């Protein structure tokens, strides 16, 4: 099962969703691999407190190599290449972190022939990662549409889209669906939104409640069963290198957030298996 966290907008909760879905699915007994294609900030690694360990191993092959000309040589000469790309988190799922080299990848991809430009990551998963027998692969994407994003979407075919309710989420979701229609037509693909996740919801306010109701009406089929509340503890946990699942004394909102992610993760598996 593959899924990618994506919305063409920064800071909506894509990385948080990837991390929390990863741990939730691990808790359900799945072997989970998370892959960070979201760029040099390496946010997913930070979310699991792995940045120092990763930076200390700079000589290894990294995820950016998958997209460049050195990849064939690496594969021939490094038999356990996926093991070398992969790090273990303390919370269960494995992680292939981002790398600063990803910043150049977009331009490099743009100069490749159209036939293989968008398929390099899909090929990597199929040829090298599938044999590792993970049950679930979660891909964290940039908050913008570039050639890396297209690679991630094409490989996953299922999108989880966190949104912040407010003035703009309607436009953002409309744009997402229109973009996917366009990619599908151009790539002859079936990339679809599996779950829209209302994030940072303030359901204790009338406005929050109303916005949530409207979203449920407009996206009845794809909206997640449970919204994610606004929770300072999510941010605090992230800053200390963990998800809310690893908090020993979670606040009420953090407890609700992790319960919501757990329910939504189970629902995502059902939807994708359908
Ligand atoms: N429900 C929430 N309540 C409070 N803070 C949250 C919530 N969800 C996410 N955050 C915080 O908001 C910030 C942005 O979240 P996140 O990094 O997941 O967004 P993103 O979509 O991955 O951003 P980018 O586009 O930059 O990659 C983070 O500091 C995160 O801890
Ligand atoms: Mg992110």
Could you walk me through the main structural features you see in this protein, from its secondary elements to its overall organization?
This is Chromosome partitioning protein ParA. By secondary structure, the chain is α/β, with parallel strands linked by helices. It has one domain (2-273): P-loop containing nucleotide triphosphate hydrolases (Rossmann fold), CATH 3.40.50.300. 48% of the residues lie in helices and 12% in strands. It has 13 helices and 7 strands. The protein has helices spanning 14-27, 43-47, 51-55, 71-77, 81-85, 102-110, 114-117, 120-129, 147-156, 169-187, 206-218, 232-239, 252-273; strands at residues 2-5, 32-36, 87-88, 94-96, 136-140, 158-164, 192-199. The protein has a 7-stranded mixed β-sheet, sandwiched between helices. Strand 6, helix 10 and strand 7 (192-199) form a beta-alpha-beta unit. Helix 1 packs across helix 13 and helix 8 packs across helix 9. The protein is globular and about 60 Å long. Magnesium ion is lined by residues 14-15, 38, 43, 140.
Task: List the secondary-structure elements in sequence, H or E.
Answer: EHEHHHHEEHHHEHEHEHHH
* CATH homologous superfamily heading: P-loop containing nucleotide triphosphate hydrolases
Strand order of the largest sheet: 3-4-2-5-1-6-7
Q: Give the N-to-C terminal Cα separation.
A: 12 Å
Oligomer: single chain
And the CATH topology? Rossmann fold
Which band does the percent of strand residues land in? 5-15%
Q: What is the mean pLDDT?
A: 95
What number of domains? Answer: 1
Count of DSSP strands: 7
**Computed CA radius of gyration, to the nearest angstrom:** 18 Å
Dominant shape: globular
């Amino acid at each position: 099962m593959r899924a990618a966290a994506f919305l063409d907008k920064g800071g909506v909760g894509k990385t948080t969703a990837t991390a929390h879905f990863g741990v939730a699915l691990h808790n359900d007994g799945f072997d989970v691999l998370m892959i960070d294609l979201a760029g040099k900030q390496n946010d997913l690694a930070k979310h699991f407190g792995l940045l120092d360990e990763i930076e200390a191993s700079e000589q290894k092959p990294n995820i950016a190599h998958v997209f460049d000309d050195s990849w064939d040589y690496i594969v021939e000469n490094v038999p356990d290449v996926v093991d070398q790309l992969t790090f273990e988190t303390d919370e269960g799922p494995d992680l292939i972190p981002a790398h600063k080299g990803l910043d150049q990848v977009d331009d490099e991809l743009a100069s490749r022939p159209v036939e293989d430009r968008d398929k390099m990551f899909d090929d990597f998963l199929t040829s090298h990662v599938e044999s590792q027998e993970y049950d679930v692969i979660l891909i964290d994407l940039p908050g913008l549409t570039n050639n890396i994003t297209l690679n991630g979407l094409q490989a996953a075919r299922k999108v989880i889209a966190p949104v912040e309710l407010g003035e703009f989420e309607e436009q953002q979701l409309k744009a997402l669906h229109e973009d996917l229609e366009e990619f599908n037509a151009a790539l002859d693909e079936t990339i679809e939104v599996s779950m829209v996740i209302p994030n940072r919801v303030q359901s204790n306010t009338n406005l929050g409640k109303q916005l949530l109701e409207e979203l449920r009406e407009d996206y009845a089929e794809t909206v997640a069963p449970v919204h994610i509340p606004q929770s300072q503890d999510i941010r605090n946990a992230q800053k200390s290198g963990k998800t809310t699942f690893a908090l020993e004394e979670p606040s009420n909102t953090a407890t609700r957030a992790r319960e919501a992610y757990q329910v939504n993760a189970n629902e995502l598996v059902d939807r994708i298996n359908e």
